[in-house]
Amino acid sequence: MDLHMHGSRAIVTGGSRGIGLTVARGLVAEGAKVVLVARDEKQLGSAAESLRAAQPGAEVLVVPADTTDAASVQAMVDHVVAAWGGVDVLVNCAAQPSFSSAPAALADLRDADVAADFDTKVLGYLRCARAVAPHMIEQSRGRIVNISGLNVRRTGSISGTIRNVAVAALTANLADELGPHGVGVTVVHPGMVETERTPQLVADRAAATGATEERVRADLGAVTSLRRLVTADELADVIVFLCSYRAAAVTGDAVSVAAGNRGSVHY
């Protein structure tokens, strides 16, 4: 299927590694021009070079920005518009990893940690959407994809559930407001995804439990219908489709990409 994305101007936050970088690679492969956004300029430079090496001739712009700072976000979008004349796609992916440590129990949960989580993922997504919306409205088209997570449908991490439910609520509200202007907004809930962080996670769990790494991987995959983890490329394929106008009829809703969520029915 031709996604008709050649020349589309896409911003990907959290684009220096992991899911964000894989999505950027998928967008570039479809002919889009991609802006990589993250805080670390050196990592962004390396990520941009990897995209250009994989897709010779790709137009990749690096703009360091901190999504917890509204002025930084606005300056980033202004830079993109000055360089390329507008924005067609926003992929909000900048967030703290949800599995970096065991979720804190209620007694140990600090206000500051929850606030930082919320500021980065929920308010960060809001700031970016607010900054690009006027440009999308002006051209009567645009696509915004917010990357959330399956903690939205699970207990076990108070902060993780709060932030992901909030992203889903933000998405629905943005879709209703921006829809009449031709702008679609969706939220994607990945399960656990194979990224460059996964081997360390598996090694840490194996060391903590005494299980083999093979056993840990099997246990992680056992909760899915496919009995395995989703690859970053498989997730990116879905996100890239949602970034295209082929997905124009999909807005305000959630798409789960988790290899199947065993034992649950969502309707």
Span from first to last CA?
A: 28 Å
- Tell me the structural class: alpha/beta
Secondary structure: number of strands: 9
Helix content: 40-55%
Q: Kindly state the mean pLDDT as a whole number?
A: 94
Outline: globular
The major β-sheet equals: 7 strands, parallel
> What is the H/E string?
EHEHEHEHEHEEHHEHE
Oligomeric description of these chains: single chain
Radius of gyration: 18 Å
Beta-strand content bin:
5-15%
Number of H- or I-type helical stretches: 8
Strand order of the largest sheet: 3-2-1-4-5-6-9
Uncertain stretches: none
Key traits:
267 residues; seven-stranded parallel beta sheet; two-stranded parallel ribbon
Kindly describe this structure.
The protein has 267 residues and is α/β, with parallel strands linked by helices. It contains eight helices and nine strands. A seven-stranded parallel sheet has the order 3-2-1-4-5-6-9, with helices on both faces. Helix 4 links the parallel strand 4 and strand 5 (142-147). The two termini are 28 Å apart.
Outline the secondary-structure elements.
Layout: E1 9-13, H1 18-29, E2 33-37, H2 41-54, E3 60-62, H3 70-84, E4 89-92, H4 111-139, E5 142-147, H5 158-178, E6 183-190, E7 193-194, H6 198-209, H7 213-222, E8 230-231, H8 232-243, E9 254-257
Parallel strand pairs: 1-2, 1-4, 2-3, 4-5, 5-6, 6-9, 7-8
Helix pairs in contact: 1-8, 3-4, 4-5, 6-7
